[in-house]
Write a structure and sequence with these properties.
With 258 residues, this protein is α/β, with parallel strands linked by helices. It has one domain (10-149, 201-256): Nucleotidyltransferase, domain 5 (2-Layer Sandwich), CATH 3.30.420. It has seven helices and ten strands. The strands form two sheets. A five-stranded mixed sheet has the order 3-2-1-4-5, sandwiched between helices. Helix 4 (106-116) packs across helix 7 and helix 5 (152-162) packs across helix 6 (184-215). The protein is globular. The mean pLDDT is 91.
Length: 258
């Protein structure tokens, strides 16, 4: 596995279901980051993108939200700006040992590309957002597959949408440290917070065991995503900018090989 050094200047946009993450790299250094409601990309693309200089910092993006991507592409076409879209056909010689690569989320590919080119260890990449994804990346297999589970908000949305009396609750609301909720909203938030943590740590633990049995080596666990919280498990690396770093690396690789 070849370690890659980032040196390009590029604007990276990770379009998520709820929130989009935008970062600017100058000569390989991350100099600015923004998190934007993805609905704003759909409704007000000019207001968002007009402040960025895509002629100086070309755009590399990935998307899991077709409406926002369509809005972006219309904006780019009107402005006559070209962009690099990271997907399974543009990711170069990155190995994918997954039967249906077209089904892999572009953000998951960006994360996997980043860790593949920055570590020699087998990796579990945990990305917590609207969904929680667990992706396995190895030296021999590249992207091998993974697990998809609800994000923290998904627990709350399921309860409100499938019960008659439980309210709509936002995971960003205050969550008490006590496990004993004193009102319905508190009880739901506690369940979402600690239920998600237990689910996440349980899946990670089982994945570690499977990878250790296969490779006789402990994997590196990397946590990312706009909705991630700290874990009680030891030896977990927190990389909040992993996806946009992968976008920057893939852009650089694509440019140097075209």
């Amino acid at each position: 596995m070849q370690m890659v050094t980032l040196h390009d200047s590029v604007t990276c946009l990770d379009i998520g279901n709820s929130t989009s993450h935008l970062g600017i790299y100058k000569d390989g250094e991350l100099i600015n980051e923004d998190r934007i409601a993805s609905s704003s990309l759909v409704n007000n693309p000019n207001q968002i993108f007009d402040k960025y200089d895509f002629s100086k910092f070309p755009l590399s993006y990935c998307s899991v939200l077709p409406q926002a991507e369509n809005s972006l592409l219309k904006y780019l076409s009107f402005k006559m700006v070209e962009a690099f879209n990271l997907n399974h056909t543009t990711i170069g010689n990155f190995p994918i040992t997954y039967p249906h690569p077209e089904e892999i989320g572009q953000d998951r590919l960006a994360n996997s590309f980043a860790v593949f080119h920055s570590t020699d260890s087998p990796c579990i990449v945990v990305d917590v957002g609207t969904a929680t994804t667990f992706d396995i990346v190895t030296k021999t297999g590249g992207y091998e597959g993974g697990v998809i589970a609800p994000g923290p908000q998904g627990f709350l949305d399921f309860l409100s949408q499938n019960t008659a009396l439980l309210p709509q609750v936002n995971i960003k609301d205050y969550i008490p440290e006590s496990l004993i909720g004193k009102e319905t909203k508190q009880a739901m938030l506690i369940g979402a917070k600690f239920g998600h943590i237990a689910m996440k740590e349980g899946i990670i633990t089982k994945l570690i065991m499977e990878i250790e049995n296969r490779f006789l080596q402990s994997p590196k666990v990397i946590l990312t995503g706009g909705a991630c919280t700290k874990s009680n498990l030891s030896d977990i690396e927190y990389c909040p900018s992993l996806t946009i770093f992968g976008l920057a690396l893939a852009f650089q690789y694509n440019k140097s090989n075209t």
